[in-house]
Input
Amino acid sequence: MERTLIIIKPDAVQRGLCGDILGRFERRGLRIIGMKFMQISKDLAERHYAVHEGKPFHAGLIEYIISSPVAVIALEGTDAVAAARVTIGATNPSAAAAGTIRGDLALEVGFNLVHGSDSVENGREEVNRFFAAEELQHWTRAIDRWIFE
Ligand code: IDP
Ligand code: MG
Output
């Protein structure tokens, strides 16, 4: 089954939105397989956002993501990557649809609350970057048979 990495970013943690954001993914039907509250190191931030190196917002992005603890969640499910991205909404919250996390709760691209992996391959890689194998649970929920066909 597909995996995706969700980061509840510093602004969401500071604003007390962890529960609301996590609840949206849970209600969507995605299964939590890993979860922790952590401070991202500069080194880990650089690796996670390596694809944005050289862009004008890169330095600010690194400062932002290490500026406070974050909640990191590994999710599993049918089309987990695309489903989570739809639930998150467009990168710039001012353009994000109502009903999405960013469309409901944010206004600016530099404070867009949440990260979600953008491809199946990156989902797998990012989960492995943030979680050791023993931090991930292989389990079946009682409700899985009512969510996964
Ligand atoms: P995504 O989070 O929707 O996948 P990306 O394009 O991968 O968006 O950008 C990663 C993160 O970098 C964004 O979520 C946002 O925090 C930040 N970012 C992207 N573009 C800008 C910008 O133009 N100004 C400030 N921050 C930006
Ligand atoms: Mg991205």
Summary: Residues 48 and 90 are 19 Å apart (CA to CA). Strands lie at 2-8, 31-38, 70-77, 114-116.
